[in-house]
Amino acid sequence: MSAEYSGELVTDSLENMDCGAVQAVEGESELSVDMLNFHEAVSQLQVLEEEVLDAHKSLMEKNPRWMDTDDQLFAMSLQVDYDQDGEPKRFYPRPSPFPSDEEGSISPLATSTPAACRNLFATSDRTFSKQLMQRLTGQIAALEDVLNKVQVFREHLAAEEVMSQKMKRPVAQRHN
């Protein structure tokens, strides 16, 4: 790899240079290993920044779907469990989960005791709470993924700042 320095690299980009090339260039130019490492860190920061932005965009796109699901779950929780006659409303007018008997009885719910109805509703409440738990767990996982990417980006940003402060800056010559 031949690279020449005349204010900028002509043949190779800094991102594609390996240590051997760095040493060869270092002898021929004012570029230092610190400068090349700095440019590599900046390139890595740009990649991480893109990942953070993509993850945030994905999260924003999921938000309306999450809101729709939340609305459905909330509406499910507002449905009347049963009226005073003991007839369940949450399952009406859906077909009964119980097989009909020979007499044509549609469902034992009409003749069930309030305790039997409560057991059915407890099952429905467990389904609701299970769906809500799954929904929240998925949302938390998505948020934690974005949070982790932001934390990694911030750590690299801080490291790049320290690296840039430690680099030797060329002293400008004064013309008197």
UniProtKB/TrEMBL annotation:
Superkingdom classification of source: Eukaryota
Protein name: Uncharacterized protein
